[in-house]
Amino acid sequence: MSATDYSIVELGDPRLRQVARPVDLSRPDVVLPIAAAMREWMDKRGGVGIAAPQIGVDLQMMIIASRPNQRYPNAPVMQPLLLLNPLPLRYSENLVEEWEGCLSVPGLRGKVLRPDAVDIEFFDLHGRGHLLSLTGFPARIFQHEYDHLIGMTFVDRVASPQDLVTEKVFLEQILPVRMAATSPSP
After folding, report:
1. Which CATH code fits 3-93+118-156?
2. Which of 12, 22, 48, 80 has the most CB atoms less than 10 A away?
3. What are the angstrom distances between the C-alpha of 35 and each of 42, 92, 107, 126, 186?
């Protein structure tokens, strides 16, 4: 199977509201083509993460892959990481409100309040368990993708409809102001 055997599931599709099933860690042959399709769609659409439910697969798997791109120009660089059966263990008490977008919610951005750090456990393709601490943007990506595994999207987490904007407004009006505020002064 390839990415063409899957498509991005969008808001309103009931598959985005299902709780994903655990991955059978003894079957990497099943996981590999799904992971490859996820990665291809994520890269094609300029995402920094993707969860299996976003391509219509109800399995607890995600890829987090922070990197600067047109949608997230200030994203830090990290190698793509496939997480199987991920589980948050501890969240930071420090909450940060930030704009999020989603491949399954095209054309919209929303302000979402989330912990700025999370400790997680997950399994790799070989069935080995790992512990990982994530902070900042990678922590946000994990939490955003984890929401997909429990049947939620970022739209469920915005405080009010006023915290939603179109992608166009975000890119043309909000992002330039934010980038100017973070640029070093001469």
Report:
1. 3.90.45.10
2. 48
3. 10, 29, 25, 14, 44
